[in-house]
TrEMBL record:
GO terms for molecular function: ADP-ribose diphosphatase activity; ADP-sugar diphosphatase activity; metal ion binding. The lineage of its organism: Bacteria, Pseudomonadati, Pseudomonadota, Alphaproteobacteria, Rhodobacterales. Its cofactor is Mg(2+). It comes from Aliiruegeria haliotis. CDD domains: NUDIX_ADPRase. One of its GO terms (biological process) is nucleoside phosphate metabolic process. A motif (Nudix box) lies at residues 261-283. It catalyses: ADP-D-ribose + H2O = D-ribose 5-phosphate + AMP + 2 H(+). Its EC number is 3.6.1.13. Acts on ADP-mannose and ADP-glucose as well as ADP-ribose. Prevents glycogen biosynthesis. The reaction catalyzed by this enzyme is a limiting step of the gluconeogenic process. This is ADP-ribose pyrophosphatase.
């Protein structure tokens, strides 16, 4: 065996570095005859299929260290890729190589794969997502990664969103060296994850804190949207059972809320707001007005919310049952007057922070929205 034939995403050197752990690699341009790489229909990953007469360009990776090979196999096994042996061509002559390919065939093939297009659209998100996969290699079986890839990619999108520079006109302007991370460990991982950290940080007095231990609940960024009909002066609320109040021991775990949901990987907050409105309430939104973006509970949770007022048409009969059966959602919507919504805030029946924030903001902006 002369090496590993790499194609598709692993020809992107930053991703290959993350997967193999950063050790120096010996790579040679190579060509695989009678094969072509396509986009997988409905997804952003490459699909290698047999294609007589065509040639797939890639890289021949000379057999790396045992550690790098173990990491590469873990990555491939995470996506249930199958190993195969093939003959490839290099400038130095033919070579025998191993490659890994997905289980799908021509029936899943979309357009021809384009690495530059993939890097521009999906490269950064894939890097941060795969970094999480590889960081947790010792504690997460490869067989678990594929079924958890959606939440992991959503968390990766949150990390990309977090890179946006936020104002610091009053608070401290942070520098990379201000926090010294000594240890990070994964405590739990499923739809959400829990991580534990040992670190110290710069203090306001000019010194450093002692090393401390903290636990964080890791989730994707999310959107909340309050549909508002400025003509009828109505809002739409959704009602559903919530595990958080139930776990707290609340005798009333059915909550009145704004439409809400996570921002999927590769999705903008605005796209998520419109998608969630369709899923939860069957509602097409008009203009979206950003209210605020914020951490609701920064002491222990990474959740970051984008809150919107969404202009909507809410005639009589707009309330309905909704939610995705695939996500076990059981949602009932209510269309009520804005004054009634304020009464529910004042009585405490609405007791969910993001909805309260949106209603109070709408109280300030209501006249302007009604005036058009």
């Amino acid at each position: 065996m002369d090496g590993i034939f790499l194609y598709g995403m692993l020809c992107h050197s930053p991703l290959l570095t993350v997967v193999t752990g950063g050790e120096p690699l010996r790579l040679t341009p190579a060509r695989l005859p009678d094969h072509a790489v396509h986009w997988t229909r409905g997804d952003n990953i490459p699909l290698l299929i047999e294609a007589p007469g065509e040639v797939t360009d890639g890289l021949l990776l000379e057999m790396p260290s045992d550690e790098a090979m173990s990491r590469l196999e873990y990555y491939q096994n995470s996506f249930d890729a199958l190993p195969a042996e093939v003959d490839v061509e290099t400038d130095a002559g033919p070579a025998r190589a191993r490659l890994y390919r997905g289980r799908g065939g021509e029936e899943l093939a979309g357009d021809r794969w384009d690495l530059a297009e993939w890097v521009a659209r999906w490269g950064e998100l894939t890097l941060v997502t795969v970094q999480e996969i590889m960081d947790d290699m010792e504690v997460r079986p490869a067989s678990e990664v594929a079924r958890r890839f959606g939440p992991m990619r959503a968390r990766g999108q949150a990390r990309l969103n977090a890179r946006q520079v936020a104002p610091s006109t009053l608070r401290r302007t942070a520098r990379p060296e201000d926090v010294d991370l000594r240890r990070r460990s994964l405590v739990y991982s499923n739809f959400f994850s829990v991580e534990e950290y040992d670190f110290s940080h710069a203090t306001f007095a000019g010194g450093r804190s002692r090393e401390m231990n903290r636990t964080a609940f890791i989730s994707a960024d999310a959107v909340t949207v309050l549909p508002y009909d400025p003509v009828r002066d109505r809002v739409l609320l959704v009602e559903q059972f919530r595990a958080g109040p139930f776990a707290r021991g609340d005798t009333q775990p059915w909550m009145l809320e704004a439409i809400a949901g996570r921002i999927d990987g590769g999705e903008t907050p605005q796209e998520a707001a419109r998608r969630e409105s369709l899923e939860e309430a069957g509602l097409e939104l008009g203009a979206l007005h950003l209210v605020s973006q914020y951490y609701p509970t920064p002491g222990a949770k990474t959740e970051y919310l984008f809150g919107y007022i969404g202009v909507a048409d809410l005639p009589d009969g707009s309330a309905r049952l909704g939610g995705l059966p695939s996500e076990d959602e059981d949602i009932r919507s209510h269309v009520i007057s804005f004054d009634r919504a304020l009464e529910l805030v004042e009585s405490g029946e609405i007791n969910v922070g993001p909805l309260i924030l949106l209603i109070l903001h709408l109280e300030r902006k209501r006249d302007a929205l009604r005036a058009g």
